[in-house]
Structure formats: C-alpha cells, structure tokens
Amino acid sequence: MATRTGIVLIFLAVFAFVAAEDGESKESVIEQLVVETLVMPESCTITSEMGDTLQIHYTGRLMDGKVIDTSLSREPLVVELGKRSVITGLEQALVGVCEGQKIKAMIPAHLAYGKRGYPPTIPGDSTLEFEVEVISLSQQTPWQKLINDILPLLCLALVPTLLGLVGLYLYNKAHAQPQGKKKSKDKKSKKK
C-alpha cells in the first residue's frame, strides 16, 4: 500500500511540475502583433494603407531562429493590402509603412497559422518573426478605391433586392390565374 501511495505521489509531483512549466511557457507566448522599425528612410511622405500594393522582401523564422521562408533569392513578393494574400499578422504589420522601410514583426499564432500550423514546416501554435523590407509602394488609384470601397457595399444592397424581385415574381406567378382555365370555365357556363 505504501508503494502505491509513493507512486501516486511521484505521478502527482511530476504532473504539477509539467503543469507549472506549461503555465510559464504560455506566459512567454506573445498574444498581439509587435512591430519594430529596423530602418526608416530619410523621407517618409507616403505610408501604406489598405488597398495599396507593396513589393517586399521578407524572411520568416520560427522563434528558435529556423528560417521557414524567404524571398531574398526570388523576385520581391507583391502584396495588395486587404486581399489576404499573406497571413493576417503580416498584412497588419505592413499597414503604415514607407517605401524603403525595414521592419521586424513578431506575429502571434492566431494571426499566423493558428493551432494547426503549416505542417511540416510550421508547428501548431507557433509565433513567427518576419523581417521585411518594403521595396516599393503603389497607392491605390481613385478608381481602385471606388471599386474596393463602394462595390462591395453596392453588391450587399443588390443581393437582397434581387432576391426580393425573384420572390415577388414567383409569388405573382403562383397566385396568377391561368388564362386557359378561365376561358374554359366561361365556355362551360355559357353552354348550360
């Protein structure tokens, strides 16, 4: 009996130690996006906004320093802000940057690949670190702004309107008296 009690106490002690370690490691995980400017150009008159197009070079790393992806050996990556062509945290980090600016972004898992990760390269619940250089910045034209801002709202208004018109058409069609049956009833009543 004493042996069993000793084994149970050892298991409880190990469990408490592991739980304490997990609690400490979770406190060190970042919960929100952290962006640090590494290099700022001398003049920064235009900053990026949603809808703008950026060309960037980037290097993404896990917190242990392992490189998960880089564009340095390729052409710069073209990112249109608001189109979700990159992970959410990176897109958020690119809002408000200048051409020529270099940033470092610490991206929490929920703004990157979440609990699933991106096997086999990125484990689940991974915080990522991206170093990004903005090569060029093209602001959206007034027409692009109109299309990006107004067109979705217009579509939202048109869908219920079209559904209402289809419903009205179907209602009228279902409640309309067929012409052929009305004439045949009139002929039958005249024959009597």
From TrEMBL:
InterPro entries: FKBP2/11 (IPR044609), PPIase_dom_sf (IPR046357), PPIase_FKBP_dom (IPR001179)
PROSITE patterns from the UniProt entry: FKBP_PPIASE
SUPFAM superfamilies for the chain: FKBP-like (SSF54534)
GO BP term (any one): cellular response to estrogen stimulus
Keywords: Isomerase, Membrane, Rotamase, Signal, Transmembrane, Transmembrane helix
UniProt-annotated location(s): Membrane
EC number(s) from the headed UniProt entry: 5.2.1.8
Quaternary structure annotation from Swiss-Prot or TrEMBL: Interacts with IFITM5.
The protein's name in its UniProt record: peptidylprolyl isomerase
Species of provenance: Danio rerio
Lineage: Eukaryota, Metazoa, Chordata, Craniata, Vertebrata
GN (gene name): fkbp11
